[in-house]
C-alpha cells in the first residue's frame, strides 16, 4: 500500500492575488468608471446647490454661526447701513501704493490714514455693538445676545459684495 499524495488539483495562487481577494472593501463597492463619473457629477451639483442656498441665506444651508432669526436680523441691520469698515481693505490698498512713493510726508500721511480708518472702524464697531444689543432686547426679548456685537462688527468690516451670505437688504432700507 502506497499512499500517493495527489495534491489539491489547482496551482497555489500568487500572494498578491490571495491578498487582493481578502482585501475586498465593504465600504467601497465595486463600481464602474461610468458610475464613478456620475457620482462625482452628482456630488458637484449638490455642492453648487448648497453653496447657492448658503449665499441666498436659506436657514437650512447656513452654518451654525449664521443660523437663526437673531443672526438674520443682525445681518440685515448691518447690510442696511454703510460703515467705514467696509472701505478698510480698499483704503489699505491705496495706503500700500502711497507708501511706495519715496516722499516721507506722503508715506507718513498714508500710514496715518490707515490708522485713522482703523480707529474709526473700531469705534464704529463699538457703537454698532451697543445698538445691536439694544435692538435685540426690543425685538427678541430674553434671547441670548452673546457674540452678536462681534458678529455685527465683523460683518460690517467686510466689503459688501464679498459678504456671505449675500446681503438681503439694500443700503438705506429700514430693518424691522
Automatic annotation (TrEMBL):
Membrane spanning stretches: 87-106, 112-129
Keyword annotations: Membrane, Transmembrane, Transmembrane helix
Pfam family for this entry, one: DUF3043
UniProt keyword Transmembrane present: yes
This protein's name: Unannotated protein
Region called Disordered, residue ranges: 1-25
